[in-house]
Design the sequence.
């Protein structure tokens, strides 16, 4: 008989036990069910470093206003930062979150996930984790006054309806799944990169790590930016995180925003 992985209960105490951080995780708020952890952070005044965690979200938010399916047994969490950084650095921050998530997955579960530009984590061509970075801009200074980083990691078995495009830790590993440990480890990995590389303004090695996990280099994708969508071949990623693609007419284009989707022939 096939064995199902045991997924432990989320617990503030257990997460704190594995946390090494000074800033991220200074306050932990754990919910069984919430509408959206990003929304909670947007609507409440919280200390920098506060992490809001949920087992389930009823209105999980994805990029481009899409919804993010967040059934029970997941690891959905968001944290708040108030850094003194420019808009141009937000893309680097997102890249660092993707590297932190992949480092932590390798450390805790011993598998090597892939990254799909700009901030999806994939395994075996299926989405495992989504990352949403949102900004609050101060009306007075017009500068960033709050950054909300939301991470949605599928840990429970995914629904049959989406099993063609989505996967989860439970679908990948055979052992039991310690959600508290993976959340703590992602936060630990991120804080280290945040302090050393983002605030230290030295993300060269993080870009290299990101690139080494970017499984779309050399693959055909559909790039979408605003209204326009076209098929192209991914050639490289530049030093600032921009994706270099070759269009079907041979033109080389650098993408700074938008997103790409895989062309998969199953
Ligand atoms: C995407 O793939 O489009 C991004 C998904 C981000 C989902 C996470 S789950 C935790 C946080 N709360 C939300 O409502 N969204 C983010």
Sequence:
């Amino acid at each position: 008989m096939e064995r199902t992985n045991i997924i432990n209960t989320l617990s503030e105490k257990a997460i704190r036990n594995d946390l090494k951080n000074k800033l991220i995780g200074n306050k932990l708020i754990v919910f069984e069910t919430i509408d959206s952890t990003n929304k909670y952070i947007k609507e409440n005044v919280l200390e920098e470093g506060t992490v809001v965690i949920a087992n389930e979200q009823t209105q999980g938010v994805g990029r481009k206003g899409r919804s993010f399916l967040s059934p029970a047994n997941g690891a959905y969490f968001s944290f708040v930062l108030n850094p003194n950084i420019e808009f141009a650095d937000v893309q680097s921050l997102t890249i660092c979150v993707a590297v932190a998530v992949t480092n932590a997955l390798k450390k805790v579960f011993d598998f090597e996930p892939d990254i799909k530009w700009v901030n999806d984590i994939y395994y075996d061509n299926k989405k495992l984790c989504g990352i949403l970075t949102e900004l609050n801009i101060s009306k007075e200074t017009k500068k960033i006054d709050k950054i909300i980083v939301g991470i949605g990691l599928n840990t429970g078995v995914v629904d049959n309806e989406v099993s063609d495009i989505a996967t989860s830790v439970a679908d990948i590993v055979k052992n039991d799944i310690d959600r508290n440990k993976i959340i703590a480890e992602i936060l630990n990995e991120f804080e280290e990169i945040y302090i050393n590389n983002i605030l230290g303004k030295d993300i060269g090695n993080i870009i290299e790590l990101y690139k080494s996990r970017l499984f779309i280099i050399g693959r055909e994708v559909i790039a979408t930016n605003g209204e326009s969508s076209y098929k192209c071949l991914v050639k490289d990623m530049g030093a600032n995180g921009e994706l270099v693609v070759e269009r079907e007419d041979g033109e080389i284009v650098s993408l700074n925003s938008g997103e790409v989707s895989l062309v998969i022939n199953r």
User: Anything to note?
Assistant: The mean pLDDT is 94. The helical segments are 12-18, 37-43, 90-109, 169-172, 179-199, 204-213.
